[in-house]
Amino acid sequence: MILKLGGIGMISTTGYIARFSTELLTIKHVFPGGSVPSLPCTLELLDAYGLHVIDVEELGWHYQRTAEQWLGNFETRWPEIQAIDPERFTERFRRIWTYYPSGVIEGFRPGGGNLALHHITFTKGKVYDPKDRRFISMR
């Protein structure tokens, strides 16, 4: 990551609070080789690279609603999508991309799969400002 000393960055990431294994469907068919990180793991990596976390916001309820819209749009427009390339957009493709957002929706639902959407704001470096009694980014 290229960030100047004192620069501010933000990561938007889907993850868990605790460490869980990423679901097979996700790592095999949706995001090959990917993983759903835990918040502690993400924070540890930021710290290891000298980045100072200044805010973490959880917005999972928004992502649940977004996934509901994606799924509805996908189901409604499926005939149009399939017509673009029937050899690529097969029934198997439709099943994967119907099941995956359904799981995402459930994962974000209260009492569901404990998924969270974190917006993590950070700086590269930090300085304590005694006047405001807080850490500020270096400029």
At a glance:
This protein has 139 residues and is an alpha+beta fold. It has helices spanning 24-30, 39-48, 60-84, 91-108; strands at 8-16, 51-58, 115-124, 127-129, 134-136. Helices cover 43% and strands 24% of the residues.
- Beta percentage is 15-25%
How many domains make up the coordinates?
1
- CATH H-level superfamily: Vaccinia Virus protein VP39
Mean pLDDT: 87
CATH class: Alpha Beta
Unreliable stretches covering 5 or more consecutive residues: none
Detailed description of the structure:
The protein is of the alpha+beta class and 139 residues long. It has one domain (8-136): Vaccinia Virus protein VP39 (Rossmann fold), CATH 3.40.50.150. It has four helices and five strands. The chain has helices at residues 24-30, 39-48, 60-84, 91-108, and strands spanning 8-16, 51-58, 115-124, 127-129, 134-136. The protein has a three-stranded antiparallel β-sheet, with helices on both faces. A hairpin with a 4-residue loop joins strand 4 (127-129) and strand 5. Helix 3 packs antiparallel against helix 4. The longest helix has 25 residues, at 60-84. It is elongated and about 60 Å long. The mean pLDDT is 87.
